[in-house]
Write a structure and sequence with these properties.
2 copies of one chain form a homodimer. In chain A, helix 6 (179-186) packs across helix 7 (190-202). By secondary structure, chain A is of the alpha+beta class. Helices cover 41% and strands 21% of the residues of chain A. Chain A is globular, with a radius of gyration of 18 Å. In chain A, the strands form 3 sheets. In chain A, strands 1-8-3-6 form a 4-stranded antiparallel beta sheet. A 4-stranded antiparallel beta sheet of chain A has the order 2-7-4-5. The first copy, chain A, contains 8 helices and 12 strands. The structure holds a DNA duplex.
DNA sequence: CGTCTATTTGAGCCCCGTCAAAGGCGGTGG
DNA sequence: CCACCGCCTTTGACGGGGCTCAAATAGACG
């Protein structure tokens, strides 16, 4: 587990001197959620912020008749619902795709941490801003791109994020999403996701089988998806604290 | 203009005792943007947070080939890009639908305010969380609902938000959006928006003409749209400050 | 009263959804 | 080691919701 917290540090832009903050976080209880279980349901009262240590989770919303939209994925190092104690009811659900291990951080601990360590608070806020930016790109994806472009874009995004989290090796990464998951995330049918994936395979862009994704031609895939990495804000280039560039 | 800042206070959940903070905000320069102009372009370095005083603005993203997705609307009292100084480049654009008057608040002023007045900081954070929640509902809207449902949902949301901002009279409100705007916000074609609006009119649900919207049957419209108001978090029911309910 | 933008209408068709069933694959137990 | 089971993937036929292209009409504004 030790290697997973650094993953969070990087994603959040903390340097080693903030290690003490990390130590405090590790005091929070670790929880395991089985694959395909719900971690939080819409309508619940928010109980804790969650820091994903391992596994893949998603945030989703559904309609009374069963239609379901995945609105985001949580990779190891990602926070769910950081500031959730400011709102009374959850407006979305969180589900585990694979088995998920996470830290359940009580609101008081989070508040205390934020007050003691302003840079930590800033880093957490930044993390939320990036999440909101990704949400916007998804809306563009679902609203404007064709099925091919949508699937390609999602694959590229996940691959880039997994690589940034050190969870890819070369051009390959684990890929636990089913085609139904991809369908719910892109707003197309699982049947059509299947045909779209076959096209991408036929065009020599990807390999995808038995939960492994291999990107054969990332440049062509990015062009097809009109992928502009800016929205991920991967470079930590905001206000560099204390003048260190 | 005096009546517009209270509109912001309510939307953000501040009580009268925070009036001093409001006064400080009014020190920021007021700017007018002409209708149909861009206020911020994707790729710009973020310069200031903006508090809309009057008019209607939107946040949008576009693709290299011209396709465009509106990802949110800013009503009077709404903040754009509150914490934008934490990210180096804008990942989206902001455009004025009508003429828009806003306060341009420099980052330093905002930071100072947040430090002096923790309740203000909390209120601003809450505002951002609600904006993120609305984004998620939009993704559900565009990803899962049919054209009829999408348009109905957007109309209900805008009406409810305008009413909450005291910008509706009875069942009627100003509605400056063109059918092209509605199309860009819902991910359908303007031609199809037109036909969809005609259906809603034929079914006795709305009247919409010459920039005026009238809701004839809000309950039926909500049912059609599967509108669940939770996501707007309109009741200020988070941490009630200092025990006042 | 001309110009510009927004709305409306029509015809044709294609992308993607629906429904249904078959096949593959991993896990489990006998 | 095989048989079975559940889930996921794949395939086919068909239909329809929404897109495209194009042009006509209606309003807004000077």
């Amino acid at each position: 587990m030790a290697h997973l917290i650094p993953n969070f540090e990087r994603s959040v832009g903390l340097s080693a001197e903030d290690g003490g903050a990390i130590e405090q976080l590790r005091a929070a209880p670790t929880v395991d959620a089985p694959a395909r279980s719900d971690i939080v349901r819409e309508g619940d009262a928010p109980m804790a912020a969650r820091l994903v240590l391992s596994g893949l989770a998603c945030r989703y919303k559904d309609l009374p008749d069963g239609r379901r939209q995945i609105v985001g994925f949580f990779l190891p190092g990602d926070f769910c619902d950081l500031n959730v104690s400011l709102l009374r009811r959850m407006d979305h659900s969180i589900g585990a795709i694979t088995q998920v291990r996470y830290l359940a951080i009580p609101p008081e601990q989070l508040h205390g941490l934020a007050e003691q360590r302003p840079r930590m608070a800033q880093a957490l806020l930044r993390h939320e801003l990036v999440a909101a930016s990704i949400q916007r790109e998804w809306l563009l994806n679902v609203g404007q791109r064709t099925a091919r472009e949508r699937v390609a874009h999602l694959l590229v995004e996940l691959f880039v994020r997994l690589r940034a989290a050190n969870l890819a090796r070369g051009d390959t990464c684990d890929f636990p999403l089913t085609q139904t998951d991809l369908a719910d995330a892109t707003g197309i049918t699982s049947v059509h996701v299947n045909r779209t994936l076959q096209e991408l395979r036929r065009d020599g862009l990807i390999e995808l089988a038995s939960r492994k994704l291999r990107i054969l031609d990332i440049e062509r895939l990015k062009r097809l998806a009109m992928f502009n990495p800016n929205y991920l804000h991967l470079a930590h280039d905001g206000h560099a604290p204390d003048g260190e560039s």
